[in-house]
Amino acid sequence: VQLQASGGGLVQPGGSLTLSCEVSGVTSDSDYYTIGWIRQAPGKEREGVACMGVDTFTPRFYYEKSVKGRFTVSRNSAKSMVFLQMNSLKSEDTAVYYCAARNVIIAATLDLCVGMNIWGKGTLVTVSS
Questions:
Q1: Distances (CA, A) of 4 to 83, 91, 105, 111, 129
Q2: Which carries the bigger pLDDT value, residue 68 or residue 1?
Q3: Are 73 and 122 in contact (CB under 8 A)?
């Protein structure tokens, strides 16, 4: 599985931005269990932002507390793209955003962003006036 993120840029506070992640090298629905977005702000550790579990009949979702109600993670019907719709952006959302996926089995957790082992290159989002 290969991941390629795009769509980052400069946006004003309160604005919106959509990140895209192209997913390639997938041959079956079991090629990964979770997929989503992880970010790393300057001087901070990486944190899971919005991830989805795709190994069940209906997808499951996890959102970091600070982005709930503002960010939405989704996947297209062809399962070739994953998106992160970001609304009401704040300066503290400034970070490099990574598309990541997990295809290894880990202990059950509600945090679907945990244990990602497949990473794409990041895309920079800067929220500033």
A1: 11, 24, 23, 23, 28
A2: 68
A3: no
Q: Which two tokens stand for residue 84?
A: 């992160």
**Chain-centre distance of CA 18, in angstroms?**
11
Q: What is the rounded CA–CA span in Å between residue 52 and residue 1?
A: 16
**Which amino acid would we find at residue 39?**
R
Q: What is the pLDDT of residues 106-117, one digit of tens each?
A: 988 889 999 999
**CA proximity to 41, closest of 112, 92, 90:** 92
Distance of CA 37 to the CA centre of its chain: 2
- What is the distance between the alpha carbons of residues 37 and 54, in angstroms, rounded to a whole number? 14
User: Residue 47 burial by CB count (10 A; 0-12/13-18/19+): exposed, middle or buried?
Assistant: middle
Round to the nearest angstrom and report the end-to-end CA distance of the chain: 37
